[in-house]
Each structure stands twice: as C-alpha cells, then as structure tokens.
Specification:
Elements (H helix, E strand, L loop, with lengths): L1 H7 L3 E4 L9 H10 L5 E6 L11 H10 L4 E6 L7 H6 L2 E7 L7 H9 L3 E6 L17 E5 L14 H14 L5 E5 L4 H10 L3 E4 L1 H4 L4 H8 L2
Parallel strand pairs: 1-8, 2-3, 3-4, 4-5, 5-6, 6-7, 7-8
Helix pairs in contact: 7-9
This protein binds D-xylitol-5-phosphate and zinc ion (ZN).
Length: 223
C-alpha cells in the first residue's frame, strides 16, 4: 500500500546533498529525513567529465547510514561502466549517468538493472533532447540538466521548459511510465511550472540547503 502511495506521488523533490554543510552532514541529513522530500540526490563529480570534484564512496556510505530517503545517484564522470555496480552495492536507489559520456549506454544500463537498481540517463543542456528518445522505454527515468553539470547554485536555463514538454509528450504518446527528473536552478518560484510541464522529480540543492527553513521550502515546492 505504501509503495502504491509512493508511486502515486507525482510531485517528488530530491534535495541535492552537494549544497549541504559537510561539517554537519548528519544534522543536514536528519533534517531531510524529517521533511517531505522523496529522495536524496547524490552528485558524484570526477574533475574530468565536469570541471569540479565532489565526493565518492566514503560519503556515499555515510549517506546510506544516516538517510532514510532513497539515494538518487547522479554520476558526472567518464567511464561510468567502471563504477555503476559499486554505487548500486553502496545502496543507491537509482543510478544515472550522462549519455554524452559514453559510446553505448545499453550495456551500462544492463549492469545497473542486473543489480535491481533503477536506471537513469542524463543529458547536459547542450545535448539534443531527441537523443534520449530511443532509450525512453529502456530506462526508469531521464534527467534533463537545467544548468551545465558541475556546480550547484547556477541559474535555471529557461529553454529547459520546452524540452520537458517534448519528452513528456513522447512518454505519454508511447504509454510509458518513464519519470522525468530536472536538475539545476530549481527553486520555490519555478517548481510549480516545472511540474506543470511534466516533470516528476525536481532536484534542488541550494534552494533547499541554503534556505532558512529547508523543511518548509520542500513542502512549498511540492504544492
Ligand atoms: C549540478 C548538480 C546538481 C546541483 C543542483 O551539477 O547535478 O544536482 O547540486 O544544485 P542547485 O539546485 O543549487 O542548482
Ligand atoms: Zn545532480
């Protein structure tokens, strides 16, 4: 029953731990645990695919230990095929990687599926959204970046709205249940419009963790 209710919750918020205060990670996670957040978004950056380095397995293990929210792992790395299984074993609820980082995503998706973990394909804003179309029936979710991957706190790119509408239409026309996740520059002001356009999951880093009241911010984003 709970599972059913969970699936029916069409407006999901995934706070991105990238913007958390890492000196007080346990407190930050406990606060998200008490909130209406649906997932905890985990941004892994390698300094090669993106010009920034975030964190890896030790932090993932700490998150696993403290978070009661499922971990939504977003890999911004080259050669994701080397690491997806380890992230699955480390307790990921979903594992996503960038389409533009690989030659052929299919065998990597299969590695994730074999672990019983949800699959997600991601694209940066400069990648044609049509490139996701052949994979819509092969993944659980697609993640459209609404800023260039690499840093929190950037400004939402407005052209993302039309991409959401396009991919939402494709999913509906084909009777699929693929979820649409949006990541970058999401805040209280644009959340409703993003859900309206067809987004299912909104990632929010600075808007949540830098807010005076993160719990209330998450609640308002879901309205
Ligand atoms: C950026 C990351 C995002 C980031 C979002 O590369 O993928 O998840 O944490 O941060 P905000 O919500 O601050 O744009
Ligand atoms: Zn992300």
């Amino acid at each position: 029953m709970l599972f059913f209710l969970y699936l029916c919750d069409m407006k999901q918020i995934a706070p991105s731990v990238l913007s958390a205060d890492f000196a007080h990670l346990e407190d930050e996670i406990n606060r998200i645990n008490r909130s209406d957040a649906d997932l905890l978004h985990v941004d892994v950056m390698d300094g090669t695919f993106v010009p920034n380095i975030s964190f890896g397995f030790p932090v993932m293990e700490a998150l696993r230990k403290y978070s009661t929210k499922p971990l939504d792992v977003h890999l911004m790395i080259v050669h994701p095929e080397k690491y997806v299984e380890r992230f699955c074993d480390a307790g990921a609820w979903s594992v996503g990687f960038h389409l533009e980082a690989v030659d052929d995503p299919e065998p990597i998706l299969q590695l994730i599926r074999n672990k019983g973990v949800r699959t997600c394909l991601t694209i940066n804003p400069d990648i044609d959204v049509k490139r996701l179309v052949p994979y819509l029936d092969k993944v659980d979710m697609v993640l459209l970046m609404s800023v260039f991957a690499g840093f929190g706190g950037q400004k939402f790119i407005p052209e993302t709205m039309d991409k959401i509408r396009f991919i939402h239409r494709e999913i509906q026309d084909r009777g699929l249940h693929t979820l649409i996740e949006i990541d970058g520059g999401v805040n209280i002001a644009n959340a409703a419009e993003l859900f309206e356009a067809g987004a299912d999951i909104l990632v929010a880093g600075s808007a949540v963790f830098h807010a005076e009241d993160p719990i209330e911010t998450i609640r308002q984003m879901k309205q």
